[in-house]
């Protein structure tokens, strides 16, 4: 199984790219959203990948985050959702948008993707709702994952200004941390995921997501 590719982007096509790794070129199909985020030809690129194996077909699909890759795998498990429809959904909503739509049972958001009808969209949210919390917890990007494997540079004393602190986690990483914090407080995975999904309309950083989600989880009355 090919789970990740790191190499040079050779060229782009309408729905796929060619990545050169160790002298071998891999054709990788991607969503419109991933395509827009990729660098130009000749530049370094890294993608998580999922390999589709059929009797007469081998296809690689590429993703910038583990969360996006896992949503692709889950979407493909739903009857009526093939690789093309899955990439259409992810291209239209992004991994976080898919998580929000599934957690909130928003079939209309799923059906906004090209080629996905209302009944199929309803099937997606119905079958995947219980799986949303675990996927939403997969925060971070490929760049962040790779940073964890880079050796720390030698520390050299210098009069140069110190770099500014790293910004607070945003997007998938913040969503993951907020979800973890809420479950540690005793909230169930499903209700925590729904609250974080709703809170995403108000905040993007971890602290903001937690505060907004707690307001939604607070007893009414």
- What is the average of the pLDDT values? 82
| CATH fold assignment of the largest domain | DNA polymerase, domain 1
Large-scale geometry: globular
User: Radius of gyration from the CA trace?
Assistant: 19 Å
CATH superfamily caption of the largest domain: 5' to 3' exonuclease, C-terminal subdomain
Distance between the termini: 53 Å
Describe the main β-sheet briefly.
5 strands, mixed, barrel
Number of helical regions: 10
Sequence stretches where pLDDT stays below 50 over 5 or more residues: 140-169
The structural domain count equals 3
Instruction: Please state the structural category.
Output: alpha+beta
What does this structure look like?
The chain is an alpha+beta fold and 221 residues long. The chain has three domains: 60 residues, OB fold (Dihydrolipoamide Acetyltransferase, E2P); 64 residues, 5' to 3' exonuclease, C-terminal subdomain (DNA polymerase, domain 1, Orthogonal Bundle), CATH 1.10.150; 46 residues, Helicase, Ruva Protein, domain 3. Helices cover 46% and strands 18% of the residues. The protein has ten helices and five strands. It has a five-stranded mixed β-barrel. β1 and β2 form a beta hairpin. α2 packs across α3 and α9 packs across α10. The relative contact order is 0.10. About 14% of the residues have low confidence.
Give the key terms.
221 residues; alpha+beta; OB fold (Dihydrolipoamide Acetyltransferase, E2P); DNA polymerase, domain 1; Helicase, Ruva Protein, domain 3; 46% helix; 18% strand
